[in-house]
Amino acid sequence: MPYRALVTGASAGLGTELARQLAALRVNLVLVARDRARLERLAHVLRSRYLVDVEVLAADLTDPVALDTVATRLADREAPVDILINNAGFGVYAGFEASDIADERRMHELLSWVPLRLAHAAVPGMLERGSGWIMNVASVAAFTPTGTYGAAKSAAVSLSRSLNIRYRRRGVRVTALCPGLLATEFHERMGEDHLPSLPRIAWADTTRVAREGLRALYRGRAVVVSDWRYRLGRIGIAVIPNRLLERLGTADASLDEPR
């Protein structure tokens, strides 16, 4: 039987591209996001182009009831989900001293608690079947002191490493995909004034990032930084003294990975 993947944040950006590439591999899909209309349009395209089965599950994952609905779908033994992609996310642009604490809480719940909750729902069935894959989309911000967004993403990296170590020998592979800047709607949703003024080379290609992420997931790599320019940056981060890294991190905390 063909595999089935559940992708959160599937209505735009990296989530849409991950769904498209999975469909091209003939993987059936469960698409999750808040905007049902956009999900339905994407589902129609994927069904007609790749001849795969696509379910639409509209849900605001920061709402406990909606989150439980998605978790219940993941735990369904009758129509099992083999691949979980935790991609949904947003950022808080305001500085910590000025941000709305409700926005901070929603962001941390979506980036940290939601991947844990959904993985917790998916893992038991995967272990029973002896196979499964979970991708938590994190960020290169997880490796630098770049504010509360980076703090939440570091939790996703730590969770991925822990689960991969614990369950890989039992057939369940867990990967943290850590992109850099992507040309998606992430910054646009925060307003045009929040778009970083950076040269073209600083922006990673969404298609390549999705492809590298899925390849790393298949191979069972616990953490993958994508693409090449950010892998080079990750090497640099490892050798920069902590005091200098802290100064760089506070210089501009707005360069978080966009999806």
Q: Can you walk through the features of this model?
A:
The protein is of the alpha/beta class and 259 residues long. The chain has a single domain (4-251), classed as 3-Layer(aba) Sandwich (Rossmann fold). The chain has eight helices and seven strands; from the N terminus they run βαβαβαβαβαβαβαα. It has helices at residues 13-24, 36-50, 64-74, 101-129, 148-167, 206-219, 228-239, 242-251; strands spanning 4-8, 28-33, 54-58, 83-86, 132-137, 172-179, 223-226. A seven-stranded parallel sheet has the order 3-2-1-4-5-6-7, sandwiched between helices. Helix 5 (148-167) links the parallel strand 5 (132-137) and strand 6 (172-179). It is globular. The model is unreliable at 235-241 and 250-259 (pLDDT under 50).
Shape category: globular
The largest sheet is: 7 strands, parallel
Which residue ranges are poorly predicted, with pLDDT under 50 across at least 5 consecutive positions? 235-241, 250-259
Structural class: alpha/beta
- Helix amount: 40-55%
Family: Belongs to the short-chain dehydrogenases/reductases (SDR) family.
Organism: Leucobacter komagatae
GO molecular function: oxidoreductase activity
Protein name: Short-chain dehydrogenase
